[in-house]
Specification:
Layout lengths: L1 E3 L13 E11 L8 E13 L2 E12 L2 H21 L7 E3 L3 E3 L6 E11 L2 H9 L2 H5 L11 E3 L7 H22 L4 E8 L3 E5 L13 E14 L2
Parallel strand pairs: 1-10
Antiparallel strand pairs: 2-3, 3-11, 4-7, 4-8, 5-7, 6-7, 9-11, 10-11
């Protein structure tokens, strides 16, 4: 199973670092030889890079008449287009929704629209988000300022290797324990490979996983081995 504690021009998941470990969880030795077993866990981690970004901007403008509100919204939309292009994005990387008009009695007409950016150019999106204050300076009114979400789409290609590494580390721990206890492993009693998790790659902690381009894939395998008498 795969889970996020949270599509794809880049199309690559990079693996620049692997951290592996195995540790002893518990042992149980009963009177019957067949009941003697050792339980161990193996951890595998791999650094990966997000290959898709999703960012939604919602604009709003006002005018005394509908035509005025729509004209103001159009100017803002063009300013956003130029802003995104200046950060290396291309027009095909975003779509603009139709304008929505509302008017309360005694208030100007309000026009709003949503611009949805979905692209594999993750670093361009990150750069634009860091520079978002420039939109306000250019007369763009954002309803909210949500952060972009960065995702890893190609998880399945790395999952088998990561699961194998975690299980291998668990077996190594079991073998070390058996050697130190002057016995040996005689078979696998039970195995639980666990879930693959995507977590923040920020070593300092405290960062939301979806806001990070560099992430970690992590899996823990739990194995029980029978021990010889």
């Amino acid at each position: 199973m795969i889970s996020n504690k949270s599509n794809t021009s880049v199309g690559m998941v990079t693996a620049s670092r692997i951290s592996l470990s195995g540790w002893l969880v518990a042992t149980s030795q009963h009177e019957k030889p067949e009941d003697r077993f050792v339980t161990v866990q193996g951890l595998a981690e791999r650094e990966v890079m997000a290959d898709s970004a999703l960012w939604t901007l919602r604009l709003q403008a006002h005018g005394e008449k509908e035509i005025d509100a729509l004209a103001a919204l159009s100017r803002q939309s063009r300013a956003v287009d130029s802003f995104l292009i200046s950060h290396g994005l291309r027009p095909r990387d975003w779509t603009s929704g139709p304008p929505n008009l509302t008017r309360k009695e005694g208030s100007p007409v309000r026009a709003a629209c949503t611009i949805r950016i979905e692209t594999g150019a993750v670093w361009s999106v990150a750069s634009a988000y860091q520079d978002i204050a420039r939109l306000k300076a250019n007369g763009v009114t954002l309803v909210t300022r949500p952060a972009p979400a960065f995702e890893v789409s190609d998880i399945s290609s790395l999952a088998p290797e990561l699961l194998w590494e975690a299980s291998a580390r668990a077996r190594e721990s079991a073998e070390r324990y058996a050697a130190e206890a002057f016995t040996r492993l005689i078979g696998l009693k039970r195995a639980h490979q666990g879930n693959i998790e995507i977590i923040s790659g920020d070593a300092r902690g405290g960062s939301v996983e979806t806001s990070q381009i560099i992430k970690k894939m992590r899996v823990v395998s739990t194995l029980e081995f029978r021990l010889a008498a």
